[in-house]
Amino acid sequence: MSLVERVRERLAAVRDPELDASIVDLGMVRDLLVEGDGDLVVTVALTTMGCPLRSRIERDVRDAGFAVDGVRSVEVRVVAMDAEERGAALRAARAHAQAQAPTTTLRPGVPAVAVASGKGGVGKSSVTANVATALARRGRRVGVLDADVWGFSLSRLLGVRGPVEAVGGRMVPLVREVGTGSLHVLSMGLLADEGAALLWRGLVVQKAVAQFLEDADWSGVDILLIDTPPGTGDIPMTLSRLLPSLGVVVVTTPHPAAQGVAARTGDFARKSNLRLLGVVENMAPVVCEGGVRHAYFGEGGGALLAESLHTELLASIPLREDVAAAGDAGQPVASAPDADFDPLVDRLVELAPPGGAPGCSARMLDAIARAVEGAPLG
Ligand SMILES: Nc1ncnc2c1ncn2[C@@H]1O[C@H](COP(=O)(O)OP(=O)(O)O)[C@@H](O)[C@H]1O
Ligand SMILES: [Mg+2]
After folding, report:
1. Domain spanning 3-104+358-373: CATH 3.30.300.130
2. For the chain, which residues make up each domain, given as ranges?
3. Ligand nearest to the CA of 281
4. Structure confidence by residue, pLDDT tens digits, 148-194
5. DSSP 8-class letter at 319
6. 74 and 66 in contact (C-beta within 8 Å)?
């Protein structure tokens, strides 16, 4: 396959977040060329230049380009569609919506974000619990799926207890009110005794995770966070199949050696067509009262990892005694405003807006549909 063909194949996995269809299928990739020694130039046609999702689409296209071996640089040029192209995009979006029966119970447009890491013990669950809690405190209804079936810990970290009930054949996540919002939690820890060894085989585990997504009722949540097992096993594969627009955050400690392991996870996310949102460095150096700095887990690994994955460092969370203690108590530190977690949550909300807020192209296509065809989109 030529480089251009491989780039096109990879771009087919980039989705318009509102129309939830491939930008290639929607006719948004107008031109694609490789200059010199792997310098890629992609021209993307948007429904309107003022699209608030423009920077996200640009970023996803750039990421997709860099994910292809042999691409050295990526330039994204953005142009506006003409009326005819917009009409064609509308028809493609409609056909796609009809062909695609959702298998998960998430409402369309609700983002799902997986928290991943190369190895255990880096604070993946702690970050998941704090981000979820901060989002809930701000009024969101936050789904939390603990897909780390062997190392589940979120029920404890979030202070929720079973039993999980089924209504109308669907498992109902356990609800905990936080601030003006709520947490909706499903974890293996709610189905099995914590501490019980789960000697499950791959296929059984995959099925369990699929059931958590398909047979549980997530219809009430604005965003779904998923804590995944460390590494690149079957579960990320299952998630990518069920949630085609899944975003991935990679957590690492600052040690440069940890960075290498985490990089494989980031690469894997990308090769599985998942959306890499960025890196969170956890257990970063601390400055004590006397001004002395301690780098217990090394330093600089987060920035290095972000650079090697062509993504951004979303946050660097220092080693904090209260983070561990609050987790053990089932009351994450981000239950109250928190200078480390709040900026991370701000950025995640920009990258994966909860609730799938309607943006420009959906509204515009809707208007075009009514004007041109006398019928609403859908
Ligand atoms: N920033 C931090 N400061 C101090 N302790 C932390 C921090 N992040 C996580 N921990 C603690 O480190 C341990 C491992 O974290 P955990 O979230 O369980 O990791 P993982 O899910 O990656 O295996 C837990 O005891 C947790 O409370
Ligand atoms: Mg964990």
Report:
1. yes
2. 3-104+358-373, 112-352
3. 1
4. 887 889 999 999 987 888 888 888 999 999 999 999 999 877 776 65
5. P
6. yes
